[in-house]
Amino acid sequence: MIKNKKILFIIILAVVALTLGACTGRRVVATGWSGITVNEETVYFSYGPHAYALNLNNGAQQWQFPAEPINGVDFYAAPVLADDYSQLLVAGYDSVLYSVNPVNGSKIWSFVAAENRYIAPPLATEDRIFAANSDNSLYALDYDGLLQWEFETEDPLWASPILSENCNCIYQASMDHYLYAINPENGKLVWKSEDLGGPIVNNPSLSEDGLILLATFNNEVIALNEESQQVEWRFQTSDWAWATPVIDGDQVYASDISGTFYTLDLHSGELLWQVQPGGGIYSSPLVQDGMVYFSTDTSSLVVISQEGVVQRNQPVEGKLYASPVGAEDKILLAPSEAEYFLVALSESGVQVWGYPPPK
Amino acid sequence: MWDAFITLMITSLLFIYNLIGQNFGWAIIIFTVVVRLVTYPLTAKQMKSSKAMQDFQSSKEFLDMQKKYKNDKEGLAQKQMELYKEKGISPFGSCLPLLVQFPIIIGLYQAIIRTLAVTPIQLVNLSKHINDGANLIPINSQFWWMELSEPERLPILGVAVPVLAILVLITSYIQTKMVTPPTSPGAEPAQGAQMTQAMTLYMPFFMGYLAMTFASGLALYFIATNLATIAQYVITGQANFKNILPKLPNFSQLGKQ
Q1: The complex's ipTM?
Q2: Going from the N-terminus, what domains does chain A have, and what CATH number goes with each?
């Protein structure tokens, strides 16, 4: 009787430990979503303990990095190719930025000075790498992995930096509500926006005529003028605007996490049309061959015409947080919590191949 | 149901966090005190049961019964249960309220992790629990030397010391010892008391292990809740300080032998 009670007690403790363990996000469940990069015949993507290189035509794995999983090391940011394609930059949740040989996945160097997760993919320019980290800092490195400068903001950086040729500066959006324009040579602040009202977790997009478009958690899409550095227009969304707005001619595609997809006029911010097919939207749409593809967290890929007519609402196994990526005549999707890490669909929605997690 | 419970906890945590100037460490501590006050009826029941058990186990009736059934364990157990029933004492009265607190611990831990939201999926989950409050994001997860979303280690002379886990172990030990009824000398502990003794032994190590392994926000909760329990016992005059120190052998007796 007493022995049974002791066993019962130990079982209760074990259940508590397992229950707590299940929500730590270590090894058990994914804590981010996959980023995808395509170069000619190769697809690079990160998910969980590895970054992978696959053959675009058939989904066959070419390599994985690291070869064996390392405890506490996860990757979710999209791998990024160096300007001359000689290095693949893989940013980890272990606060390390790795440079990997894109041909065979062997490590070239690693940068270990950051103190927190890399959520965003780095930006690779002709002579520099710019990597934003959750430790609030943007790091500029050369292609030997040596630190050139560091720029600090008030809050974590989840957004990728982008390069503007108009101002010859780097734009870095921060969770501290500000957009920073930074000199890429020395890391000095060029200008800083007004308080944009809410955290920004994704990179801005730039129009050819100098508008910077941002999505904020203050339920807004905001257009800033690069030259005047002032707000040109604001558009109110019905919930947090998470995904980077995408510019398509004179239209802007934006979305919010309650699942509303908006099309706005680029110059005025006026609403042209909106659809709400169901499910939250966390990523930017893909515009390909006159169609707009976007994914929702309720497992569907929505295809609409540029005039806002829903063509298809295609169920896909798993949660679709990541942006669909176009590659030749295929649409690549990286579902979370699904049988496949990566799925290639034809433009008509037929699955061409699926990449299952390695055993 | 569980989601609604977590939402309530997250909303309360964020309310306190905002109220006190966006310090998540203090928000956890204050929230713990509030939870202790809300669950005080359970604690009071636990304290009452412990006291009743303590009184009963030191009574002549109990000691006589133990002598009488010295060689008959089944008979002793049966008689004990009869007496518990007769006197309205539950042998698990002191540990059941403790077990009831496990969902609160798990709920609080999930609330802490979801609120800190240091990864995109965690932030997606948090967004489903809060209607407003985007301006509170990102939550300031630094508290003294700790990053509350990560297991805590303090570098001391080049060694990463799990200070919080050690404090959890010590306060859990003091708390469980303080609330454990003493066993009368020579008396055979009752089954319920044996269960409690087992918990006294394992619980501090188990709590220390959790504190060392999981986010330090949970360890902070453990310390705050242990200190609050100790304070409750001290204030109500039911703290059993004699139990805290390990019993040393009687050296004068040993010398005579």
Answers
A1: 0.90
A2: 34-160 (2.40.128.630)
